[in-house]
Amino acid sequence: MKIKRFVAADMRQAMQRVRDDQGPDAVILSSRRLAEGIEIIAAIDYDEALIREAAVQAEAQIETPPRHAPAPAHAYDDGAPAAAPAPRRPQPQPRVAPEV
Questions:
Q1: Among candidates 28, 24, 25, which has minimal Cα distance to 6?
Q2: CB 26 within 8 A of CB 43
Q3: Are the beta carbons of 44 and 2 closer than 8 angstroms?
Q4: Which of 24, 26, 60, 75 is the Cys-Cys partner for 71 at CB 3.0 to 4.6 Å?
Q5: CA 100 to centroid of chain Cα atoms
């Protein structure tokens, strides 16, 4: 793998330098703004299979929270009668002006 650093006044010039030096198959590894302009780190002749394998390994390392099965209905039943729902409050009715 051939990795190079490119610095230019703006992104357009930096990308042009990458294409001129490494060709259209170059891979941008990073870019950042510097006092003197834009820095791009690019690579060529990379092994795509290694990149895919690294991505799969990185994805496998992301921990997902375990899924818990819902508790059976009897787990919540303590034998006490269920509480009655709270009474609903009557909704206020809009006032209508009397006809004159």
A1: 28
A2: yes
A3: yes
A4: 75
A5: 63
Q: What is the mean pLDDT of the chain?
A: 79
Does residue 1 or residue 70 have the better pLDDT? 1
φ/ψ (deg, to 5) at 18: -60, -50
The answer on pLDDT for 46 being more than 70 is: no
3-state secondary structure 6-39: EEECCHHHHHHHHHHHHCCCCEEEEEEEECCEEE
**Lookup: tokens for 93:** 């009715």
Q: Identify the bridge partners of residue 44 per DSSP, sorted by sequence position.
A: 2
- Is residue 14 classed exposed, middle or buried when 0-12, 13-18 and 19+ CB atoms within 10 A define those classes? buried
